[in-house]
Amino acid sequence: MSDAAIVVAGATGDLGGRITRVLRERGARVMVLVRRGTAADRLEPLQALGVTIASVDLMRPSEVAKACAGASCVVSALAGLRDVIVDAQTGLLEGASKARVPRFIPSDYSIDFTKFPAGRNRNLDLRREFHERLDTAGISPTTIFNGAFADMLPTGQMPVILFNLRRVVYWGSANQRMDFTTMDDTAAFTARAAMDSSTPRFLRIAGDQLSARELAAVVSEVSGERYRPLSAGSLGMLRIMIKVARAIARGGDKELYPAWQGMQYMHNMLDGRAKLDPLDNDRYPDLHFTAVRDVLTPRFRR
Ligand SMILES: NC(=O)c1ccc[n+]([C@@H]2O[C@H](COP(=O)([O-])OP(=O)(O)OC[C@H]3O[C@@H](n4cnc5c(N)ncnc54)[C@H](OP(=O)(O)O)[C@@H]3O)[C@@H](O)[C@H]2O)c1
């Protein structure tokens, strides 16, 4: 049993649930903050892990503070737009500060948005805005940067590999490497960072770093069919496409992941500035990272 006491916000979600599981496996005491009125069947898997569950309104820091008493770190895995990433996370931060929790991991889990200017990615700008509050809150923050979740490649959720055309689409250079990490690996690393009292401001991990050309070679090897890189134009062209897609979507500003935001993410990855360097993969030597090859393999198994 570890003496770490970790608060997780967003534990009913995908990444937050995985982080919570690893924390429990490693012997941490875990308190999860859920919304009031969360259905019992969504709480059962968390109860089975042996966590303490507190129903709180994140917009009320005094409620949050009560639930955070005695914690060594607050981990946020919340997902949403301004009302969540800026407003609810601020409530969480204020509650954590009030309870004198020493450390805070914000819900970033992305490419390195500190390396390119604001205005290039709506969702990451919200995190940038939250960081202004986080960095002056008197709490020690650690951001985890993991690139894109590799799990989105075989499902087409990140439509880079065009399986029906046997192409890997890119803008700009086919040789620009991008960072991919699985959700499980991100969760395992985040749980370790939460239990580590000496983490720096930023930690960067990548299960794989592949260019469009290298990704095409990997899918070819795994599928036994020839995949080739497909240029969709220059990065300047992609920026124009983003503007047009955003204008056509009108109202898409209320969606968390509209197509134009995915295109912003692609642009950020392919212009090279958000590339994760140096990597902290070796920080916890017993952790092993999953290669994209292994993420893609099940898709082609009959
Ligand atoms: N790098 C990548 O490629 C990538 C891809 C996907 C996600 N991410 C990031 O990973 C993080 C987690 O994403 P996810 O996909 O795991 O999210 P998810 O499954 O949608 O879970 C979101 C969690 O946030 C909670 N939540 C949202 N709004 C809330 C509020 N106002 N008050 C209290 N709880 C609230 C949800 O609670 P309920 O269950 O009650 O709704 C849920 O527990 C986010 O930062 C996301 O941007 C990164």
Shape: globular
Number of helix segments?
11
Overall SS class: alpha/beta
Radius of gyration: 20 Å
Fraction of residues in β-strands: 15-25%
What is the ordering of alpha helices and beta strands?
Answer: EHEHEHEHEHEEEHEEEHEEHEHHH
Largest sheet: 6 strands, parallel
How many DSSP E strands? 14
Q: What is the assembly state of the chains in this entry?
A: single chain
Average pLDDT score: 96
The percent of residues in helical segments reads: 40-55%
Low-confidence stretches: none
User: Which small-molecule ligands are present, each listed once?
Assistant: NADP nicotinamide-adenine-dinucleotide phosphate
Jot down its keywords.
single chain, 302 residues, alpha/beta, 6-stranded parallel beta sheet, 3-stranded mixed beta sheet, 14 strands, binds NADP nicotinamide-adenine-dinucleotide phosphate
Fold and architecture overview:
This protein has 302 residues and is α/β, with parallel strands linked by helices. It is 41% helix and 16% strand. The protein has a 6-stranded parallel sheet with strand order 3-2-1-4-5-6, sandwiched between helices. Strands 8-11-13 form a 3-stranded mixed sheet. α2 links the parallel β2 (29-34) and β3 (52-55). NADP nicotinamide-adenine-dinucleotide phosphate is lined by residues 10, 12-16, 35, 38, 58, 77-80, 84, 88, 107, 109-110, 146, 148-149. NADP nicotinamide-adenine-dinucleotide phosphate (NAP) binds next to α1, α4 and β8.
